[in-house]
């Protein structure tokens, strides 16, 4: 129970960006990593708040869960849940959303064999938390990188003003979106540590060890 008295805010899962009443743009995040992190925080006695995109997962014991759908909703809900001691941005937030949501189902137009969607940038939740007036003491982001992992992850440390970035080592057997296993490297200004490959619950516990150490230092 070494996180007793600490509020840990976690985002998890994908976001869905609606195009019309029946269609959306989404991604393949299962939410398992973020849910495992919230569960690990709760097991250690934290007040764990989980802002979840659309996923089919059971709420972990002792976790307060708030469901959202879009990046805009996740942004408002996460910022509204501050203050917190720790923010962990494990969600796979859509970077772009349709400029307009059609009020009725988009129909094929006779004679048109292409459709162009105009997408606009979503707010960067992680960067906004990290520069917030009520900034948590520790802000941890995730990064899904396919190449140049260390360089890109360290770049995000600075560009988003966060304390640590957990980069998925994609390509490692068994790691990734829908898997129960994962392999991460945590980068912070003072070093780096490789976790896994291991079950996401084990990775989540190792991440909590890291967080407890950082909070204590
Ligand atoms: N993130 C966020 N809000 C967004 C986009 C990303 O909070 N609109 C967060 C994610 O939750 C993650 C971190 O930013 O913790 C990094 O996400 P990633 O997709 O790797 O980086 P981006 O900054 O979106 O850059 P890019 O996708 O272009 O590499
Ligand atoms: Ca992105």
From TrEMBL:
Domain DNA/pantothenate metabolism flavoprotein C-terminal stretches: 3-213
InterPro entries: CoaB-like_sf, DNA/pantothenate-metab_flavo_C
Gene3D superfamilies: CoaB-like
Coiled-coil regions, chain positions: none
Classification via Pfam families: DFP (PF04127)
Protein's name in the database: DNA/pantothenate metabolism flavoprotein C-terminal domain-containing protein
The organism of origin for this protein: Noviluteimonas caseinilytica
């Amino acid at each position: 129970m070494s996180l007793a008295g600490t509020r840990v805010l976690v985002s998890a899962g994908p976001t869905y960006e609606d195009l019309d009443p029946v269609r959306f743009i989404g991604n393949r995040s299962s939410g398992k990593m973020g849910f495992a992190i919230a569960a690990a925080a709760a097991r250690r006695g934290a007040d764990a708040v989980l802002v979840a995109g659309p996923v089919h997962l059971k709420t972990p014991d002792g976790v307060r869960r708030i469901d959202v759908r879009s990046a805009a909703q996740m942004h408002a809900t996460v910022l509204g849940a501050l203050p917190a001691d720790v923010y962990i941005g494990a969600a796979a937030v859509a970077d772009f959303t349709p400029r307009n949501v059609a009020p009725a189902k988009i129909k094929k137009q006779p004679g048109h064999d292409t459709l162009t969607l105009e997408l606009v940038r979503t707010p960067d939740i992680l960067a906004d938390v990290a520069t917030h007036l009520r900034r948590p003491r520790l802000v941890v982001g995730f990064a899904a990188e396919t190449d140049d992992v260390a360089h890109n992850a360290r770049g995000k440390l600075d560009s988003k003003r966060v304390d640590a970035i957990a980069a998925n080592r994609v390509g490692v057997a068994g790691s990734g979106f829908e898997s129960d296993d994962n392999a991460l490297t945590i980068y912070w200004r003072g070093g780096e540590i490789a976790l896994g490959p291991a079950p996401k619950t084990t990775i989540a516990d190792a991440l909590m060890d890291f967080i407890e150490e950082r909070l204590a230092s």
